[in-house]
Request: fold
Amino acid sequence: IPNGVDVENFSKEFSYGELSSLTDKLGIKPDEKVIISVSRLVPKNGVDFIILALKILSQLQATSYKLLIVGSGPDKEKLEELAVENGVRSKVIFAGDVGHDQLPKYLKISDVFVRPSLSEGLGSAFLEAMAAGVLIVGTRVGGIPDFLKEGETGLFCLSGSPESIAEKAGLLIKNHELSQKIAANALELVKEKYDWRKI
Reply:
């Protein structure tokens, strides 16, 4: 029996004012695309690779990106240093721990959820992102392939590869038709198989 997700909580709609006050607070501009990772800041979650992928994406002039990291952990200082070393510190927001009641709002202001895990159980943070309508990029580890079907409910990136993360996140942001299809399929899957009420 898998873990579940509170679909009703994560799929609820917020007013424009609620979301814009959060983006203002975080310093996200209207034209910026937001990559979010909800992760404990430990090596197995691969957050360092997302920062390196952000550097690659930031070199493409057409789109401006922000990386929103929700969560805390022992690697925070190291990750901040990595962002500085790679010239993307101004594009990385360390939001710290966010209460479960506020998390849907953070997901709703985001375009793509990325967690390039080196190991993973079920990965309920992915399911929460899917319920919120956020596109997901993950690795073929642990329980992730149970719900991530390539090109159907999300995209796979290679483990430990910033280039692969940048390519897949960039593709979801650019390809509107693909992203609409994936978001609809992912929400349907979560409602059907992972809603707490059914679990």
Summary: The chain is about 45% helix and 15% strand. The CA atoms of residues 26 and 139 lie 28 Å apart. The longest helix spans residues 176-194. Strands lie at 32-38, 64-70, 92-96, 112-115, 135-138, 155-156.
